[in-house]
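ok so for the tutorial part 2 we go from a plain amino acid sequence to predicted C-alpha cells. step 1 is just haveing the sequence, like this:
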Amino acid sequence: GCGLGVAEHALDAPAAAETPGAGANAADSPRDAAPSGGEAMPDTVTVTPGDSLWSLTATLLGPTASDAQVALAWPRLYATNASVVGADPSVIHPGTVLTVPSDLSPVPAP
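step 2 — the prediction. this is what the C-alpha cells look like for a chain of 110 residues:
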C-alpha cells in the first residue's frame, strides 16, 4: 500500500513511489486502471470539438458502460479538472487537456 490516504486528486504523487511496470506486484490498483500499458486508462485526454465531460467519460468507461455508470463517473472527471474547466462543467474547450482520475477505470464486458 502507498499509505497516502490524503488528497485523491494528487495523481502524480503516488506514481513516483510505485515501480513502473510492476505487473503482478501492483496489488493496490486493478490492472486495467494502471496508467501505463497497452489497453490501460490514459493519464490525460485532450478535448476535441463536440466533446463533453459526459462523452469523454463514456469513452473512458468503454462501450459496456451504462448511462447510470457514466452519470456517476463524469462528476469525478469534472472534480479532478475543475481548475481548468471552470465553474460550468457543460462548457469545455477544444485543446484543453484533462487529467483522468485514478479511480476511473473501464467497465468490464459482461
